[in-house]
Known about the structure:
Elements: E1 2-3, E2 19-22, E3 25-28, H1 29-33, H2 41-55, H3 61-65, H4 68-77, E4 81-85, E5 88-92, E6 95-99, H5 100-112, E7 116-120, H6 135-152, E8 159-167, E9 175-184, E10 189-195, H7 200-205, H8 210-232
Parallel strand pairs: 4-7, 4-8, 5-8
Antiparallel strand pairs: 1-6, 2-3, 5-6, 8-9, 9-10
Helix pairs in contact: 5-8
Amino acid sequence: xxxxxxxxxxxxxxxxxxxxxRGPCVISRQTLESRNVGKTRARGATKWMVMVSVxxxxxxxxxxxxxxxxxxxxxxxxxxxxxxxxxxxxxKGAMHFSEPKAADSVAAAFRSxxxxxxxxxxxxxxxxxxxxxxxxxxxxxxxxEFAANVAAHPPSTGYALLPEYLLSGDPAREAIGIxxxxxxxxxxxxxxxxxxxxxxxxxxxxxxxVDACTEVLEKTVExxxxxxxxxxx
Length: 233
């Protein structure tokens, strides 16, 4: 296990309460309402600035991150694509480690769902971004770093996939976020997943372990790729 510098703040996005959905990202309304905002204009302006600073990074994050043309080609290739799956990068506060078993399982899921030919990489990918309160920001930074890594070291397959799991260190609520990044061999981002406790896929399993995070990811891949492919076919 390797140490990595990172701040220890919890995700503000994960507080309970009604949720505002924006594309693939969510934010708790209670998070905003819990801000101490008075009736004065100054405080009203402060509230607006806080809302803008929190919402702007979340709005349409999927379309801002993925390359539209490359993403379309990826969708069209589902069923015959080739992909290399890397061991999951697992963050636990300031610590991180890689989980090879996740790569084996996700690759097997790709094959069993007839999404394409999936190979497993024994190489690990280390992401250097720090832990933020804004999960979407973490996702963007990780996606960009993985994309750059693949562009510099292209796999023999057409695509590469990296799972990323966020663990809290709290045994009662261990897993708090799941990400997945798929890029083409040129490093263009074609598919992403962002999940936390506000998403049905996440809540259905309520993952507390790395293996459970992989289970959630595989079900999400099935719903968002395999089932959509059948529906469009």
